[in-house]
Design a protein that fits this description.
about 325 residues, alpha/beta
Length: about 325
C-alpha cells in the first residue's frame, strides 16, 4: 500500500491538485485587492458596511481635551492718580462751558440795560449826584454845565478810536489816548471827571491841540460810566510810575484821588466835541454776544474728553468686548 501511496500516478495527481488550488487562491487574492480598491474610492458609510458585514457599528471614541488653566486677562487700566489727573481735562472743559453760560447771561443783561438807558432823555447830573454812588447808573445820559480845568489833565491809554471816520488825517484810529479833564459844575462847584474823547499819541501834550482847549462856561452832555476791572494777567501798574498822568485803566477812584475830584466819570458824546480837540463819543455801545458758540464748543470738547477718559480709565477686556450675549 505504501507503494501505491508514493506511486507516480499519485504524485502527479497531487501535484495537479496543488496547482489548481494555487490558481484558485491567486484569483481570490486578486479579487480581494480589487474590492479593496473599489471601497477606497467609494465612501460607504460605516453603518452600511456594518449592516452588510453583519457586525454592529462601533461608536467613535470621544476626543479628550486636556484641561488648560484660564489665562489671566491683562488690561491697560490706569491707576487712581492717573485717573484723577486725566479727569481734570473734561472737568475743566465743563467749567469753562458753565463760565461762558454765566458770561452770556451777564452780556445779555448788559445789552438790555444799554437798550433801556441809552435812548433815554438826558437828565441833569447835579440831581443824580445827591444819591451818592452813581456806579449803578452806568450808561445813563446826563448833561452838565460848568468849565474845564485844563491845567490838570489825565490820560487813559492806549485805546482805539470808536469814531474812526473822524480820525485826523495822517493818523491811524488805533493806539491813541483818552483825555480826562476835571470839570467844575456851575450849580454846586463840585468837580467831576470828564472824558473829552480820543486823541492820537502825537497829541498827548496839550500844546499840540491848543485850539481844542475850550475855556469859560460850557454845557456838555454824555453818559455816566463805572470803573473798569483790571485784567488779572496784567502785571503792570494802573498808574505809570514814570508818567503819573498816564493810566492804563479807567480806575475812577484812583484818577479822582490823583486829580482831587469827586469819583464821578462822564463820557462826552459827539455833540460835545470841538474842532481841534479830542473826539467825543468814545462810549462803546456795541458788544458781540457769541457766548452761545463758546458754550457749545466747550461742551462738545468736554463730552468728547469724557468719553475718551472713560475708555482709558476703565478699558474693557477682549472677552467682554467681543462676546455676544445670549438672549
Amino acid at each position: 500500500m505504501s507503494r501505491n501511496l508514493f506511486s507516480k500516478d499519485f504524485i502527479q495527481g497531487f501535484y495537479l491538485h496543488c496547482q489548481n488550488c494555487r490558481r484558485a487562491l491567486g484569483c481570490s487574492s486578486q479579487l480581494q485587492i480589487f474590492i479593496t480598491q473599489v471601497k477606497s474610492r467609494v465612501k460607504i458609510p460605516r453603518r452600511h458596511m456594518a449592516a452588510q458585514s453583519g457586525t454592529p457599528a462601533r461608536k467613535p471614541t470621544p476626543i479628550k481635551f486636556k484641561t488648560i488653566p484660564k489665562p489671566e486677562v491683562k488690561t491697560d487700566e490706569l491707576g487712581t492718580v492717573s485717573k484723577i489727573i486725566l479727569a481734570m481735562f473734561p472737568l475743566t472743559a465743563y467749567g469753562l462751558a458753565y463760565w461762558q453760560y454765566e458770561r452770556k447771561k451777564w452780556k445779555q443783561n448788559l445789552l438790555d440795560l444799554i437798550d433801556e438807558r441809552a435812548g433815554a432823555t438826558p437828565v441833569p447830573l447835579t440831581e443824580l449826584m445827591t444819591r451818592g454812588n452813581l456806579s449803578d447808573l452806568e450808561y445813563t445820559p446826563v448833561w452838565l454845565e460848568g468849565e474845564f480845568d485844563h491845567s490838570r489833565e489825565a490820560l487813559i491809554g492806549f485805546r482805539p478810536n470808536f469814531q474812526p471816520d473822524r480820525t485826523p488825517k495822517g493818523f491811524k484810529p488805533n493806539g491813541g489816548l483818552w483825555i480826562v479833564t476835571p470839570f467844575k459844575l456851575k450849580d454846586t462847584g463840585r468837580e467831576v471827571l470828564v472824558n473829552r474823547g480820543w486823541v492820537p499819541r502825537a497829541w498827548m501834550d496839550p500844546e499840540t491841540r491848543a485850539e481844542g482847549q475850550i475855556t469859560g462856561n460850557v454845557k456838555i452832555s454824555g453818559m455816566i460810566r463805572a470803573a473798569e476791572k483790571k485784567n488779572p494777567l496784567d502785571i503792570n501798574p494802573i498808574q505809570d510810575p514814570k508818567n503819573p498822568r498816564l493810566f492804563s485803566y479807567r480806575d475812577i477812584p484812583l484818577i479822582a484821588g490823583y486829580l482831587g475830584t469827586d469819583p464821578v466819570f462822564i463820557d462826552c458824546d459827539n455833540e460835545s466835541s470841538v474842532k481841534g480837540g479830542p473826539i467825543g463819543g468814545q462810549t462803546n455801545l456795541k458788544f458781540n454776544n457769541r457766548h452761545m458758540e463758546y458754550i457749545l464748543t466747550w461742551l462738545s470738547l468736554a463730552i468728547g474728553m469724557s468719553v475718551l477718559w472713560y475708555n482709558r480709565a476703565f478699558p474693557r477686556t477682549m472677552a467682554t468686548r467681543y462676546t455676544r450675549k445670549r438672549t
